[in-house]
Amino acid sequence: MKNESPSQPWWTYGHVWLIIAGPAVVVVAALATAWIAVRSPDPVIAEDYYQQGMNINKTLARERARMPAMQGRNHANTPAEDAN
Q1: Both 51 and 75 in a single domain?
Q2: 11-38: pLDDT as tens digits
Q3: Mean pLDDT over all residues of the chain?
Q4: Distances (CA, A) of 61 to 19, 25, 51, 77
Q5: How far is CA 56 from CA 5, 44, 51, 63, 65, in A?
Q6: Is 19 domain-assigned?
Q7: Are 46 and 52 in contact (CB under 8 A)?
Q8: 3 is a domain residue
Q9: What is the pTM of this model?
Q10: 54 and 38 in one domain?
Q11: What's the rounded Cα separation, in Å, for the pair 26 and 20?
């Protein structure tokens, strides 16, 4: 007499669902990401984006060149009681 229990279907075992859950979550996340990407595409940047960036850099360089003079002027105008 054998003490074997009858074989059960695969879906009744919990570890099978644990193994299936990992790839299923990845597929759902990929579909959600694709839906978000299609629903809200990236905006088109300006045609002259490089020139705009160069102009910003020139403006920042001019402001940095004036910074020591502005700091000295502001320091000279600071009242003595506020200097501490």
Answers
A1: yes
A2: 889 899 999 999 999 999 999 999 999 9
A3: 83
A4: 58, 50, 15, 25
A5: 77, 20, 9, 11, 14
A6: yes
A7: yes
A8: no
A9: 0.46
A10: no
A11: 10
Contact (CB, 8 A) for 16 and 10 = yes
Give tens-digit pLDDT for 53-68: 899 989 888 877 776 6
Residue 54 structural domain = 46-79
Tokens of 54: 């160069």
Half-sphere exposure of 2 (CA within 13 A, CB side): 3
Look-up of token digits 């299936």:
20
Indicate the burial class of 84 (C-beta count within 10 angstroms; 0-12, 13-18, 19 or more): exposed
The amino acid at residue 66 is R
Residue type, 65: A
Domain count, the chain: 2
